[in-house]
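hey m, so remember when u said the tokens were messed up on ur end? i reran from scratch. heres the input so u can diff it against urs
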Amino acid sequence: MKTIIALLLVVNITSAMAQQITAQQAAYQPDLIPYRVKDRTKDCSEDGKWGYCDKFKNIKIPPQYDEAEQFEGNFAKVRKDKLWGFVDRNGKEVLPLRYDKIGDFSEGYASVRKGEQCGFIDSTFNEAIPLVFDRASTFSHGYAAVMINDKWGYINRDGLVVIAATFDKAYPFHGDVAEVKINGSSGLIDRNGMFVLEPRYKRIGSFSSGFAYVAKDDKWGFIDRLCKLVVPFHYDEVQSFSEGLALVKTGGQYSFIDTTLATILTLPYKTVHDFSEGLAAVQKDSASKWGFIDRTGKEVVPPRYNYVWNFSEGFARVELEDRWGFIDRTGKEVVPPRYEYVDDFSYGYATVIMVGKEGVIDRTGKEIIPPRYDGLRDFKKGYFLAIGGANMFSKYWLGYVGVDGIEYWENGYPVFRKK
């Protein structure tokens, strides 16, 4: 009876996950797709122009740009003559192409660079914060790290320096604290720039489940959100909390601790991964195969693979005899190991490699895009950016290809990627 209940639980979770992924896919179907054509004003095969078309390949924004990204909402980032700007769905340049670099929007602002100076534009494409900084990161919790005269500090959304630039490195705020570095050591500051954890640590992890790991003198411990050391420095290795458990190692022994900081599982394995979707990959010793255990330590997938990766969207990558495939959480091989390599599932799809070429499979293992490209990158809203070229020195952008296999570029020409 317990086995039946467990199987029903796996089926229900997998079904719910599949429904969620399908909903995400439907929400990400764009009506304008970047489309690339040969630049007919030039003879060189390295030249091509980007525009936008609909899913029937009807041109909606004439190809005229050297690079065109997918639309985010009503706007898309485009480049011409090494300068970036934005167009709307009618092809109007709502932000003239004048910046050397434009970052992603975060909290209503995007960093921009012109020459050696950085600033920020807002969501109406006004230059809201002047280009007076050497470098700039994204906004997080109301603050952005900026470099002034080779030192890092923080500004607010009004562009005012709220924490003086005195740090060798400054990272984004997470809640009310941010990691900074001075003379190679890490500490944490609050929103007033005061140290809540003095800079004397080798490493500080991100907070997860209320705790962050810290390293000092090659030993590891944990602090809580009050920056109080709640687990002394006696571990040889630690990982951040994942699914309420943290992997720790001392004296060659792996264990898991829970959020009460109690050891709940001590394991007889040489190598252990974090829990992911309720299972953790384990290997007895270097000569042994890999399998998976559940949170009680029970082996639910027997050790039979040369290597495995963590679960993602209900599936884990597994390798056997130099071939890769996927298993589900019951250990069933939903895609038998037959590919030269595979990547994790994302939004219901995974890239696979066969005879050096990349393609795409869906959750059933069906090849919806046969392996025929030298690379597939930047999956977003149902489309991959396809790459051609014999080696890393001759790769070029082909254009976008949909998960239905439709290619959105003009046939019969390569367009070499410009550095």
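this time it looks ok to me. The radius of gyration is 25 Å. if urs says something different then somethings off w ur setup not the seq
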